[in-house]
Every structure is written in structure tokens, then in C-alpha cells.
Amino acid sequence: MSQISAPHTQPVPWTSIARWLLAVPVLLLLAYLVTFDQGAISQAGDYLHELMHDGRHLLGVPCH
Description:
This protein has one domain (about 15-60). The longest helix has 22 residues, at about 15-35. The chain is built from two helices and no strands.
């Protein structure tokens, strides 16, 4: 007779959760700045747009 054992689970440490809770908003803000910002958030004017222009088109994000 075989027994089915429950998988061993380990608790996720809070430091790992805290890193993700910090990393996700930072990555979303970075993605926004690279893809959609036209200077409204970054206050960089066209500098950031021109810096990321080719990357935007490579990702398929329209900017004009």
C-alpha cells in the first residue's frame, strides 16, 4: 500500500517578498519611462524620448 505524501512547502521569507514589493513598482516605472513618457513624469523633456527612441520602435511602441 503506497501513501501519497503532501509536497513539502517552505515558507517564503519576508525579505524575498519585500524585495519583490520594491522591485515591481520600480520596474513598472522604468518600463513607463522607457516606453510612454514624453517628459511629463521625468521632466527630461525630449532628452529621454530621443535617448530611448530606437528602443521604443524595437519594442513596437508607437511614439509619433
